[in-house]
Write a structure and sequence with these properties.
Length: about 375
């Protein structure tokens, strides 16, 4: 919002861009760390491997020491595969951190390459498990101590590791191997003592037409002029969201306490077109507030939001949202584009949630 108020020729404009970039990096870093521990798997979807690799490189900046140089060669811009983005990120991160550990304590080079290859029936023995066709090949190479035949023969076995107990469980490569095999691909490895190692991941490609028809179009900013009742117990968050919604054209009444919001709504229940409520609040949660508001006016659409990504804590099951009159759920932190899209989708779907359809779920900014 500050960038929108600052002329581009103002010296502060560039500083604000750096602030926003740093904030987004922190947001994405936390999102990816949480993704590793989620119990619920995502469905496979067409994704650009280059996009996942870019996110991996952002994470590697925080874990790869300065004595190791990272070289990246992306020879393919159409590297599309059918996979779970979080699982694929997990595989790439595992291979890169393993490479870093193989070079720990010395100067080294971590080389990451991405290209497309055609696998024929007379392919080398290392990729004979693959069906003939087009594949994305991701290579991760290091200049570390390398491995001998005895280690190579067991490298993908569960719980097998040459590291100290405090440095690894021996599950990383076996899990990565299982993930890639489940996607119809393979992981190969070449190594020798004092010669470094190179891991290669092969995944079957998906054509551009599949990606175009399966992924949503880029979101754009949408405005409105309805009256919104906003409630959040965080003062800074309340100020920011109110200002954001007003910039989108909405008339916003804000409340710092859920009890205050309920009383405000009861005074003029027909005066509002939408309720936006935080979930985790003292005295009355967003769901509890929504239930009370729905008792007064069942047709009022309600958007629930939360910065807690643990679904068991937020209690955002589809059935529970519907039973409490919730039309949409969105994770914090969200951008102006994201909240604007969710609000307009809620209005297009109508005021009363359809029990035969799931509530709208807003996604935090990511490649999906």
């Amino acid at each position: 919002m500050s960038l929108l108020d600052t002329p581009q020729d103002n010296p502060v404009f560039e500083d604000l861009q750096h602030v926003l970039h740093a904030a987004n990096r922190g947001k994405n870093l936390i999102r990816h760390i949480l993704a590793f521990s989620r119990k619920k798997d995502q469905e496979r979807q067409p994704i650009h491997v280059k996009t996942i690799l870019r996110e991996c490189l952002d994470l590697l900046e925080h874990v790869i020491p300065a004595c190791i140089k990272i070289e990246v060669n992306t020879l393919s811009d159409t590297s599309i595969v059918l996979a779970d983005p979080n699982k694929l990120l997990q595989v790439i991160m595992n291979l890169c951190t393993n490479a870093e550990q193989a070079m720990r304590g010395q100067n080294g080079i971590l080389t990451i390459a991405l290209d497309r290859v055609m696998i024929s029936e007379d392919a080398p023995q290392s990729v004979l498990e693959l069906n003939p066709g087009s594949y994305v090949r991701l290579s991760v190479a290091d200049t570390g101590f390398g491995m001998g035949p005895s280690v190579l023969n067991r490298i993908f076995e569960p719980f097998y590791t040459t590291r100290k107990p405090s440095e690894g469980t021996g599950l990383g490569l076996s899990v990565a191997h299982g993930i890639i095999k489940g996607y119809g691909g393979v992981i190969t490895v070449e190594s020798a003592p004092a010669k470094g190692s190179i891991f290669k991941v092969y995944l079957p490609t998906v054509d551009e037409e599949t990606l175009t028809t399966s992924l949503p179009a880029a979101a754009s900013l949408q405005t409105g002029n309805e009256r919104i009742l906003l409630v959040d117990d965080d003062t800074d968050m309340l100020y920011s969201i109110k200002k954001l919604l007003e910039r989108l054209g909405y008339d916003v009444v804000s409340c710092l306490e859920s009890s205050q919001a309920l009383e405000t709504f009861r005074q003029d229940p027909e005066g509002y077109s939408l309720i936006i409520a935080d979930q985790i609040m003292p005295s009355m949660t967003g769901l509890q507030l929504s239930k009370e508001i729905s008792n007064c006016r069942p047709d009022i659409p309600i958007i629930l939001c939360s910065g807690v990504l643990d679904e068991s804590s937020v209690e955002v099951s589809t059935e529970l949202l519907q039973n409490n009159g919730i039309a949409a759920f969105i994770h914090k932190p969200f951008s102006m584009v994201e909240i604007s899209q969710v609000i307009r989708r809620v209005f297009r779907c109508g005021a009363t949630p359809n029990p035969l359809k799931e509530p709208v779920y807003g996604q935090s900014s990511d490649h999906r």
